[in-house]
Amino acid sequence: MVTGGRGFIGDELNALRRVATLVAQGVPAADLFHAVSEEVGRLFGEDFAAVMKFDDDHVTVVGLAKDFDEVTVGTPGDPGDRTATGAVYRTGRSARVDRGPSDPPLGALAWRVGVVSSVSSPIVVDGRLWGAVTVAGRETLPRDTEERLADFTELLATAIANAESRDALERLAEEQAALRRVATLVARGDSAESVFMAVSEEVANLFGEGLAAVCRFDEDRSALTFVALSTDAAGVELGTHVEVGEDTAAGLVYATGRPARIDRTDWSTARSDIGRIANQLGLVSTVSNPIVVEGRLWGVVSAIGRTGPLPADTAGRLERFSELIAMAIANSESKTALAASRRRIVTASDDARRRIERNLHDGTQQRLVSLGLSVRAAEADVPPELGSLRSQLSKIATGIADAAAELQEISRGIHPANLAQNGIGAALRTLARRSPIPVDVEVTTDSRLPEPVEVAAYYAASEALTNAAKHARATRVDVLLRWRDDDVLLSISDDGIGGADPACGSGLVGLIDRVTALGGAFDIQSVPGAGTRITAEFPLHPESDAPLD
Amino acid sequence: MSSGSRVALADDDVLLREGIASLLVRHGFAVVGQSGDASDLLALVRAEQPDLVIVDIRMPPTHTTEGLDAARIIRSEFPNIGLVVLSAHVELEQATDLIGQGERSAYLLKSRVNDVDDFVETLHRVCNGGTFVDPALVQELVSARRLHDPLDALSPREREVLALMAEGRSNAGIGRQLFVSEGTVEKHVRSILMKLDVVEARDDHRRVLAVLAYLEAR
After folding, report:
1. N or C of chain A: less Cβ packing under 10 Å?
2. Among partner residues A365, A373, A437, which is closest to B19 by beta-carbon distance?
3. Is A222 touching B (CB cutoff 8 A)?
4. What are the pLDDT digits (tens) for A412-453?
């Protein structure tokens, strides 16, 4: 049937409307491609009508009006030199061939069914040649076939563009959600390690076909340590330490400080440790992004593909994750620095008190004593007839002695001189002896504790005893110091009126500061009428404060 | 016997050391040498073998317990040399450390040297085999509050006697101090020991240790 005019324009409009409805409904792409093929086949009265998708070096049938032995949906093929589809593939423009196409597999089919004419029209999505709609006729197809196919390819292009942007949106939403989850951890101040783990899981799910890793470069950066791995990375141990290797994405990041990708399918010949790991994980594509913490290259976050090359935009999308990791590290480092600085402040003030105590005792007090001695000597030398001078000198000597005694009392409050020498047990017992209310001291260790812990425990007990005597109206206080496995527990309980509030006394606040500066925990229970119980726990090995690198 | 006693003196504060030295000379002691640190003191003691050593507890290099450590060495090498350790502050641990090494020792607040007569008397007592603990430390121990304090069973007079026992005074010395006869003191002491369930010690120095230990542990 050869028709030159537009005789069945009504049919065509109806067909287009049906396709447009499907597009609007957002049906799955495969259904849409099938529907278009059917409509085109029906419109031209031909069996062979197909939607083709173009890839780098081949075409794939993605929609077909009717299945054939040689060709079904999913059949790939060479676009061919002499087919209409091949011409579209090469030129990007619609094409018509009015003789039997001969390239397989379409050629074989065309020959069998007796195709004499074929027309193909390009599907162009956002300016890029996506594929084509092709119809083949056992009679010569109408002259306006190309134009009429174009109506369908335009609809298809719109639908594909929609679907692609929907996919992209979905992907973006997933990515945003993942970033938000990680950002929440960072903002909450979770440990850097837990942020590493979260990122490796999220990256593995988003880009990495189940695989991702966070690695930290060594100080000299020629080697790296795996600090986080996605759960799928079975067989690779956390903490694995390897040379970076020159042929790895991490190695390239190390060399350039920029994102890097390596697409390599065969790692069986790799000699480096990292190559062996690559082989073990079966990776074929790696994208690594630098983690830069305050201007210094700290490590990499890597997405790993096992089936094919990772998408081209992977590095760009990884960037936010590496930024979040960097932030978590910087947070943790500044937290560590802050803790260290608090410790230094406490230590510095302890040192100052110790110095003052020593200066008072060995300096001023000693001076007063020798001054007293001189006055006594002068007193002894006064001739008997100058009795009043002698008694004056005696008064001066007594006054000096009193001043020395007062000074001793003051310096005793400034720093416990026997703490450093005799340890916390002796110092607590001395405190207890000097307390105006009965104090029972129980210390479960004779061993020496770290000096900052002894000093902090001493001041905590001293402050608590002072409070118990001054404000609590207590009749007894129990002081317990117990050395447990990894920490020291100090508890001071009294049977007083309770109701102590840290907000009301700087003594308690200073105490809390002192305990927490050592990484310890402080607790006060002071219900009115039920006494006050202060507990402080001092870690003996505050490892969590160790710097991250 | 102690008049004319030969004394070695160690304190890193020259002014104070000189002050004490002149006090000693004024009261008839012979100062055989002075030193500013523990090792000089040991050399001095070994060379001169004085009757009495007066040593500051905090001296170079660490300013912690050099004097006490030197006293321990002197005690082991020359058990008959009297030892007077001066300290800027009094600690029970240091007192029992020194007294525990034997008799002829005194643990004193440095400022006691200003009570010249008492100080000189203490030196004489140490030379004669006595033991002495600074009253400030004893006072701290006696006045420490206890929930069920066995000392509550003592009369005020008995408490006085107990404190003087802790300071290292003999019964005769306590009698002189309190203007009572030695016999009266003995009665008090027996009563105290019975009430507190403490065994009578053989000599003053052991009595001091026992009373100190009791006071701390009660």
Report:
1. N
2. A373
3. no
4. 888 888 888 889 999 999 999 989 999 999 999 888 998 889
The reply to whether A354 touches chain B by the CB within 8 Å rule is no
User: CA–CA separation, A180 vs A178, rounded Å?
Assistant: 5
CA angle (A18 as vertex; A13, A21 as ends), nearest 5? 120
Contact B93 A422 (CB under 8 A): yes
Quickly list DSSP for A371-408: HHHHHHHHHHHS-TT-HHHHHHHHHHHHHHHHHHHHHH
Q: For residue A536, list its beta bridge partners.
A: A490, A522
**Cβ contact, residue pair B23, A421, below 8 Å:** no
DSSP for A85-127? HHHHHHHSS-EEE-S---STTHHHHHHHHT--EEEEEEEEETT
Write phi, then psi, for A50 (nearest 5 degrees): -145, 155
Question: Is residue A81 pLDDT above 80, yes or no?
Answer: no
List pLDDT tens digits, range A17-58. 998 888 888 888 888 999 999 999 999 888 889 999 998 778
The CATH code of the domain that includes A251 is 3.30.450.40
Q: Give the chain B residue nearest A406 (alpha carbons).
A: B111
Q: What is the pLDDT of residue A221?
A: 64
This model of the complex carries an ipTM of: 0.87
The A residues from 428 to 487 touching B (CB cutoff 8 Å) are: 429-430, 432-440, 475-476
Q: Does B46 contact A at CB distance below 8 Å?
A: no
At B10 the three-state DSSP class reads strand
- Asked whether the beta carbons of residue A421 and residue B16 sit closer than 8 angstroms, the reply is no
Any residues with CB less than 8 A from the CB of B203 and at least 6 apart, and which? B103
Domains and CATH numbers, chain B: 6-133 (3.40.50.2300), 138-217 (1.10.10.10)
On whether residue A16 sits in a domain, the answer given is: yes
Q: Does A421 touch chain B (CB under 8 A)?
A: yes
Chain B (123-152) residues lying within 8 Å, Cβ to Cβ, of chain A: 140-141, 144-147, 149
Residues A144 and A179 both lie in one domain? no
- Each residue of A242-254: pLDDT tens digit? 888 778 888 899 9
Tell whether A102 and A86 lie within a shared domain. yes
Cβ-defined contact of B13 to A366 (cutoff 8 Å): yes
Greatest mean pLDDT among A139-143, A525-529, B62-66, B122-126 lies in: B122-126
Query: Of A305, A332, A359, at which residue does a domain stop?
Result: A332
CB contact under 8 A, A426 and B91: yes
By DSSP bridging, strand B6-10 and strand B30-35 are: parallel
Cβ pairs bridging A and B (under 8 Å): 104
Is A397 a domain residue? no
Q: What is the pLDDT confidence band of residue B30, given thresholds at 50, 70 and 90?
A: very high
Contact map slice: B 176-195 vs A, CB within 8 A: none
Residue A542 has pLDDT above 70, yes or no: no
Tell me what the mean pLDDT of segment B127-144 comes to. 93
Give B65 to chain A, closest Cα distance, Å. 8
Residue A401, domain member (yes or no):
no
The pLDDT, as a whole number, for residue B43 is 97
What's the pLDDT at A26? Answer: 80
| CA–CA dist A79, A90 (Å, integer) | 9
Task: Provide the shortest C-alpha distance from residue A427 to chain B (in Å).
Answer: 9
Identify the three-state secondary structure at position B160.
helix
From the candidates B12, B86, B109, B111, which should be mutated to test the interface with A, based on the most A CB atoms within 10 A?
Answer: B111
The edge-to-edge listing of strands for the beta sheet with A285-293 is A241-243, A223-229, A211-217, A296-305, A285-293, A260-263
Which residues of A are less than 8 Å from B92 in CB distance?
426, 429-430
In this structure, are residues A107 and A16 in contact, taking their beta carbons and an 8 Å threshold? no
Q: Which two tokens stand for residue B5?
A: 């006693």
DSSP 8-state class, residue A413: H
